[in-house]
Amino acid sequence: MEQNKNAAIVAYLTIIGSVIAIFMNHENKSSFASFHIRQAMGIFLTFFALGYPIGYFDSWMISSAFYIFFFILWIYGFLGALNGEEKSVPLVGNFYQRFFKSL
């Protein structure tokens, strides 16, 4: 379980951490680690995909709300990995599980 938990925690560190966690989980496939890898990968890719257009709004209120929203999603997922829970992040977690089901 410790190896699986380590892979889940590494997945939330950066987008590169998510890729590293995929390789860490490749040898001993764990549903717990795979769950958190899908969540983290979804959070990071959505952040990057939406962050670029949000930057063009030129409004600190919109940008701040965007960053706070994704920071809360990240904290929610990261704390779930630390506590050994498989709870989807609010609003988009189930979508990430379906979209990244091959990971």
UniProtKB/TrEMBL annotation:
Keywords associated with the record:
Membrane, Transmembrane, Transmembrane helix
Question: Membrane topology type, per the record?
Answer: Multi-pass membrane protein
Key word Nucleus present in the record?
no
- Parts of the chain that traverse the membrane: 6-23, 35-54, 60-79
Give the UniProt subcellular location, in the record's own words: Membrane
The record's section on Pfam families has: MamF_MmsF
Q: Which domain of life is it from?
A: Bacteria
Protein name stated in the entry:
Putative membrane protein
